[in-house]
Structure formats: structure tokens, C-alpha cells
Amino acid sequence: MSRETLPKTLGIAFGLCVVCSLLVSAAAVSLRPMQEANKLKLTQREILKAAGVYDPNESKNPVSKQFEQIDTKLINLATGEPVKEGVVDPATYDPVKAASDPKLSVAIPPDKDVAGIKRREKYEFVYFLKDGEGGFSKVILPIYGKGLWSTMYGYLALEKDLKTVAGITFYKDGETPGLGGEINNPNWQKSWVGKVAREKIDGELQPVIDVVKGGVKEGSPGAEHEIDALSGATITSNGVQNTIAYWLGEDGFEPFLKHLSASDGHISESSDSEEEGGK
Questions:
Q1: pLDDT value at 273 more than 50
Q2: Is residue 212 packed enough to be buried (19+ CB in 10 Å), middle (13-18) or exposed (0-12)?
């Protein structure tokens, strides 16, 4: 008689599943610290790139060492002020995860959601390139918004005047290679440097970046805040423009930029409260 029976077959299959599951779980747990370290390194590298101070020779100048010239603050997007101690833990706070957590995010009214993200986190990190004299020379802001196929994540750096673009990077997206994927092209990113991102309109600084088809005509009216659109990628180009418009607008970093400007570049302790974060 055959020794192969249905119970034995199922038992062996079950045993194999258990062993494989344990091996996968053990690998995931053991690799998590390495994954977190790589994630932190990527974040720091992109911030340095946006600020224009990244040294690619990481063997002699590690990213962690380079990042010592960056100061990090966690701010309340609604007030523009630093988040009070105890509201959230900056060491474990993840803005990307917070954006999908109803307790840590706010819904964006459709008429304001030009970036197409639906919700945004209440609190966000901002980064300062130190000037060596106790102040800063550039401020780096996280940005994200919808392109053609994906949410595009990046960083926008502004000069100390809080109006001029110092740099831009996109580090995570699913746009079409060779078309919308050209947002990752260093040459296109360099074309942003020196452009005017915010301009006074009716007495208030407002986002004015314009991603235009047909190329920027240097010397023409408005050229100082125009960027060449990506060839064959109209929706991605519009998505980038809308992303910048949202994050430099009143529902994004405008309260922070106003607060920073009013404090003459110095971030003071805030009277911010957890309830204020929901505004």
C-alpha cells in the first residue's frame, strides 16, 4: 500500500510553509536596521543634493558627516511654528505615514488640492543649511504631488531670501522613463537654480513658478520664474508645477516661511499646541 496519504501530504506542505514563513520573518527582522539606515542615508543625500552641497565621494566624506551642516526642525504646517515637545516624537515620526493617519493629517478641500494628494500631514520636517555664523544660508522643504502615474517625492531648496530656488530633487516616482522620468535628470533640475519661486502679488508673497511648453525665452517678461516643460510629458510637467504651487502656498509651507521671515531667520520656541495642529 502507498505510504502517501492526503493527511501526510497536507502535513508536509504545512510544515514547509511554517519553516519558510519563519525564515522570511527572521530575515525581515534582521534586515530592518539596515533598511532603516539606508532610508535615512537616502533622505540625507537628497537633502544635501537639493541644497547643492552634496559630495559624491562618500568613501572619504560619508553622507552622515556631510549632513552635520544641516539643521532639522519639525514644524506645524498650520502655524508655521516648531512643534511643542511631547506632541509627537521627532525620532520616530514619519510624515509619509502620518499623511494617511487621520489623527496626524488633515483632509485637503478639493478646491485647494492642486497637488492631488487629498490629505497632508499636520507636522513636517524642514531643513536648514547652516551658514557657520549661527544662522542659515538655505532652507530645504519636502514636496510631493501627483504626476501622470505616481506620487512624486522630492525636496525644494530656497535661498535665504525665501524667494529664489537654490535647488530641487525628485527621489521617488513612477513616471515614464525618458519622458516624465526626466524630472530626475540633473540637467533639468539645474535649470531651476536661480529661478524666482515666490513673488509679491497684492502685497503678499505667492508661488509663481511656471513650467512652460516650448522652452523659456530668456529676457522675456516672466522668464525669471519659468522652467522648460518636459518634452512629451505634459501631465508630469503640470504635476510638478502644481506640486510647487501647493507646497509654497497657504496650505503648505507659507505659514512657516512667513514665520521664518518675521523671526529674521531664527526659529523660536512655539506656543503651538496639539489642538492647533488640526487647523
A1: no
A2: middle
